[in-house]
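Sanity check

After download, print the first record. It should look like this:
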Amino acid sequence: MSDNKALLLDNQLCFALYSTSLAMTQMYKPLLEPLGLTYPQYLVLLILWEQDGIGLKDIGERLGQKSGALTPVIKRMEQEGLVNRTRQLHDERSLNVRLTPKGQQLKAEAVKINQCLIDSCGLPSQDLIEMKNQIMALRDSLLKNQPS
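Expected structure tokens:
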């Protein structure tokens, strides 16, 4: 591929991933709005529905974010009655995050949202699973090979 073609925006893997990510999060917005959730809050809930009562640091690691960036999201979720934050007994600096009954009840609605997104993709489920696995393998490779 010539240098000129190599630098075309539409030939960039990074742009394909970025624009697809934007399109995906834009699909979620109107679906999450009736539940009063933002996309970052939804991601936190997905983690807590999988494993409730985990540390803020653990949530950050799962999302690939620093816990400080998540603090405002978690605080707002606590204000909205979705989660409770408690200090760990053995380490006052560490916070545990636990779902409230209100946060647990949103799980049933999330299943509907998930199905709506799958339907919107317009691809067979097996293709979506394969694509997700390839994207995650790419992510893992990029993280492993980051320059120091």
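If your output differs, re-run the checksum step. Summary of this record's structure: Helices lie at 3-6, 13-32, 39-50, 56-63, 67-79, 101-121, 125-144.
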